[in-house]
Design goal:
The chain is α+β, with helices and mostly antiparallel strands. It folds into three domains: 81 residues, Rossmann fold (3-Layer(aba) Sandwich), CATH 3.40.50; 143 residues, ATP-grasp fold, B domain (D-amino Acid Aminotransferase, Chain A, domain 1, 2-Layer Sandwich); 59 residues, Dna Ligase, domain 1. The chain is 30% helix and 21% strand. The strands form three sheets. Strands 8, 9, 10, 11, 12 and 13 form a six-stranded antiparallel sheet that branches. It is globular. The two termini are 22 Å apart. The relative contact order is 0.16.
Length: 312
C-alpha cells in the first residue's frame, strides 16, 4: 500500500501482555523512523482508539498483544473507522485467540494437535480421556501466561482453580514430550501467498518455556534453522501454512509445534501478533531468511489493509 500519511503504531493496551506489547511497539516505532516512515505511537489505554477516526493517518501497525489487541476487538474498531491495519482481521483474530475453537477447526481439517478437554468455571472436572502429565492453559491468553504442566491428578484441582484467574474457560491438554519448534509465516511480494521462514527450535531451562523464559531469560537457547530432518522441516512448514490459512489469518504470524522423533509434529497454537522484541522469534527467523528487522517491519506494514473496505 502507498503510505501517504503518518503510520500509527498501536502498542501497550489493557492485557496482561502490556509490557511486552510496549517493548514490541518501541522496537517497531524505532525501526519505522529509521526507514524514513512518519510514525507515531498510540496506546489505547491512554487515549480511546476512536480518536483516530477521520485522521490523516494512512495505516496502523498493530502490535497489541493479547486481549483487546489480538482477539478481534481492535480489528473491528479499525474496520469501523476505516483505517488499514497489519495482521489478521476480526474473525480470524478471534478464532486464533480461542484455543478450543482453533483446535476444533484443525481437527476438522485433519491437522494433528494434542487431545484436550475443555472446561468452564463451575464444570465438573472429568479427565478420563487424558493421561498424565497434562498441560493446563487459559483458553484465550498468549505469551505462555497461565500455562502449567501437571504431573499427577492430586495437583490438578489446585492448578485448574489458579488458571481460572486468566479467564473462565480453560483447556487441559495432553502433554507431548518432544522438541519445541516454531514456524514464522510472512506474505511476501504483491500476492497473499504465505512463505514459511526458517524454523526455530526453542530450548528453555528444564523445558519450561514460560513467560519469563520467553521474554526475559538469557538461559533460553534457540537454534535457527532448527537441526531437524528435511522431511520434518517440510512437514512443519506445510502444516504451519495450512493451520494459519484454515483460520483465515493473513499478513504474518507464527505457528508453534511439538515434535517427537518418529511421530508427526503436533500443532499447539497460532500467534497472529507475535512478539517483536530482542528475544522474539519472528525477527530471528527473518534474519536467517535474509531479512533485517527493518526489512521485516516494512514488509509487514506494506500489507496493511482493510477486509471490509466499505465500512460497517
Amino acid at each position: 500500500m502507498a503510505l501517504n500519511g503518518e503510520v500509527v503504531v498501536l502498542m501497550g493496551g489493557f492485557s496482561k501482555e502490556r509490557e511486552i506489547s510496549l517493548n514490541s511497539g518501541g522496537e517497531i516505532l524505532s525501526s519505522l523512523l529509521r526507514s524514513g516512515v512518519r510514525a507515531i505511537p498510540f496506546d489505547p489505554k491512554e487515549r480511546p482508539l476512536l480518536s483516530l477516526k477521520n485522521s490523516s493517518l494512512s495505516a496502523a501497525f498493530n502490535v497489541l498483544h493479547g486481549s483487546f489487541g489480538e482477539d478481534g476487538f481492535v480489528q473491528g474498531l479499525l474496520e469501523f473507522i476505516q483505517l488499514p491495519y497489519t495482521g489478521s482481521g476480526l474473525g480470524a483474530s478471534a478464532l486464533a485467540m480461542d484455543k478450543i475453537k482453533t483446535k476444533k477447526i484443525w481437527n476438522a481439517n485433519k491437522l494433528n494437535t494434542p487431545n484436550y478437554v475443555a472446561l468452564k468455571k463451575g464444570d465438573t472436572l472429568d479427565i478420563t480421556d487424558l493421561d498424565f502429565p497434562v498441560i493446563v492453559k487459559p483458553n484465550a491468553e498468549g505469551s505462555s501466561l497461565g500455562v502449567t504442566k501437571v504431573n499427577a491428578v492430586t495437583e490438578l484441582e489446585k492448578v485448574v482453580q489458579q488458571t481460572y484467574d486468566f479467564g473462565s474457560v480453560i483447556l487441559i491438554e495432553r502433554f507431548i514430550q518432544g522438541r519445541e519448534l516454531t514456524c514464522a509465516l510472512l506474505e511476501l511480494g504483491d500476492t497473499n501467498e504465505l512463505t514459511a521462514l526458517p524454523i526455530v527450535e526453542i530450548k528453555a531451562p528444564n523445558g519450561n518455556y514460560d513467560y519469563h523464559n520467553k521474554y526475559f531469560s538469557n538461559e533460553t537457547k534457540y537454534s535457527c534453522p532448527a537441526l531437524i530432518p528435511k522431511d520434518v522441516e517440510n512437514t512443519i512448514k506445510k502444516m504451519a501454512i495450512e493451520a494459519f490459512s484454515c483460520l483465515d489469518c493473513r499478513h504474518w504470524g507464527r505457528v508453534d509445534f511439538i515434535w517427537r522423533e518418529g511421530q508427526e509434529p503436533f500443532l499447539l497454537e497460532v500467534n497472529t501478533i507475535p512478539g517483536m522484541t530482542s528475544h522474539s522469534l519472528v525477527p530471528m527467523a527473518a534474519k536467517n531468511f535474509g531479512l533485517s528487522f527493518d526489512d521485516l517491519v516494512l514488509r509487514i506494514l506494506k500489507k496493511a489493509s482493510l477486509i471490509n473496505k466499505g465500512g460497517f
